[in-house]
Structures are given as C-alpha cells and as structure tokens.
Design a protein that fits this description.
The protein is mainly beta and 123 residues long. It has strands at residues 2-5, 10-13, 18-26, 33-39, 46-52, 59-61, 69-74, 79-84, 93-100, 112-113, 117-122.
Length: 123
C-alpha cells in the first residue's frame, strides 16, 4: 500500500499563488507517476497535472492550467509539488493527489489517492 498526505491548500485572492505538496509513504517503490486532480462542486473530477518519477521528469498538464501551474518532484522526499500561480476563481476545487505505477493509469479508481485539500480562490 501507498499512503498519500496532502498538507496545504487554503484561501487566496484571484491572481495569487499557492503551493500544494503530496508526500508518499509505504510501498513507494511501486509507483512511477504522481499527479493532481481536482473536483469542483457539482462537477466531475478532472485531471490537472502529472509527473513521472523515474529518469527525466516528464510532465503533463491540462490546457486550462498550462503556463500557470508547475508540477515538480523531490524523489529523496517522495514528494510531489504543485505550484499554482495566477489563480482564478474557476480553480476553486478540492485537489486530490494520486499515484500509480504508470502515468496513463493515474486517475483510475484503483490508483492511490490522497484525502484531498480545499483550494478556494476569491474574486
């Protein structure tokens, strides 16, 4: 099993920044990709960003966050970060960290999931 803990989140004004972190523990040798998803009230959970954990860090973003969000990793700490800049009210959601053995598996119900953290952007 892999456990994911996501401190961070909070309330910020539009145009501001927040950094989320996600620390993995347990059988971390079994995961090779981590990422972030978000779910706004009344909407489906959606992909935000992902990063591979082995070799060069390949990164992936949904179009709406490109140029504003940056995903990064610290393999020594088994931690992935999501730096969110120029936040908009439509970024308001619960953000979930996910991990899996392949990046194309991220988001499946059997991926590992964090508990979620609330991000609220006020206008």
């Amino acid at each position: 099993q892999v456990q994911l803990v996501e401190p961070g989140g909070g309330l910020v004004q539009a145009g501001g920044s927040l950094r989320l972190s996600c620390a993995a523990s347990g059988r971390t040798f079994s995961i090779y990709a981590m990422g972030w998803f978000r779910q706004a009230p009344g909407k489906e959970r959606e992909f935000v960003a992902a990063i591979t954990l082995s070799g060069g860090a390949s990164t992936y973003y949904t179009d709406s966050v490109k140029g504003r969000f940056t995903i990064s990793r610290d393999n020594a700490r088994n931690t992935v970060y999501l730096q969110m800049n120029n936040l908009k009210p439509e970024d308001t959601a619960v953000y979930y960290c996910a991990a899996d053995r392949r990046v194309d598996r991220l988001g499946r119900t059997d991926s590992y999931w964090g508990q979620g953290t609330q991000v609220t952007v006020s206008s």
